[in-house]
Amino acid sequence: MLHAEHPAAKIIIEISKTQDSQCHDGTTTTAVISGALLEQARELIEKQVHPAILVKGYHFALSIVLETLDEMGWELSGNQLADAARTSINGKSAESAIDTLSDISVRALDAVRDDEGNINLDNIKVSTFEGGTYDQSELLSGLVVEKERVHSEMPQSIVDANILLLKTSILEAFLAREEEAIKAMCQEISNSGANAVFCQKDIDPLAAHYLAQYNILATKRVKNSDMEALRRITGAKLVSEIKELKPEQLGSASLISEEKFGEHICVCITNEGAKSVTAILRGATGHTVSELERCFDDVIGVVALSDESKIMVAGGGSAYAHLARVLRDRAHEAPGRQAMAVESFASALESIPWTLAENSGADPVDTLLSLKSASIHDGVSIDGEIKNMKKLKVIEPRKLIRTAISSAVEASTLILRIDDVISMK
Q1: DSSP one-letter code for 223
Q2: Which of 26, 148, 172, 252 is the most exposed place for a label (fewest CB within 10 A)?
């Protein structure tokens, strides 16, 4: 967790969090533009431009930016969701897994889409495991329950499984009963047609023994969230009482199998066509899988945002460079000294292609000079050259850029309005 004492830093952190919650990406962009706007403002304040004029000028510039953005972009089509996913991953620490993560994210999104085309990201679960390589990552149409069978003689896999979801503890139910009563209750589970039991609480060892004899696979202490996911995936009802079990209370799955991921043993429930999926992310170390999970969270959010907003723009800083050109062309429209703030706003937007050029090893000054006469889709490629980003399939949702710039303006103008912050060194 990033810790900051300075009030300005706290504001920028909060705005970045808002950007992440709304767009799942672009937090660095928001922070960079916020910082650039404040740096430009400091220079103008030193030239005796009042902060109130700067705030008005920045809002004037923002209105031009939003107006221009509305005229930019094209409608999402073809395989561009995968292109947006790859663009989101580029430059992150998990970039080596770009093909795997982009493929999993797009397939996961399609899998959880309902009949009306709506998407609930809560139906995409992520399970991470050390002791593998990123290319072993996969998407399961169903759920990974990070528990193992309660008895070694239980079947390791079941095809066309009938599933009982048990909320009560089999331990409590049997505690005061003799062995025959325990056996009778296990038989009742078997008679219902169930051959797989997922219990939210505990299972007595003697009960596990009899369940194994009836060739029933069982797991215990399953998390409540997993029980709810199993209910959605299998169609089973959550059962609180073992007595008088009925077949209609059971759910179904095409396959249940116990799998080993590194040192972790889990039970995988597969149901083709399920509206809940699990992204199984593998990595060699704990740090690797943490980075994969963080990156996947960003990319699935960007893919979902692209699918929802439908309008895409070229990446590589091309949109920011184009907006900066438009602002300089229209700066004269601002009244009085506000025009200086509009020019400064343009310079702040150029901090994005500047940073991309620096990160790629190119000269940022030469890059900005080249972008001044570039076309709307020209941006900074990973090799530092100015190229058509749309042709390179480096694209991102327009809403991400709109939100990032709006958030940055909100943060910077809020800080400029606070005299105490301005005077702090």
Answers
A1: -
A2: 172
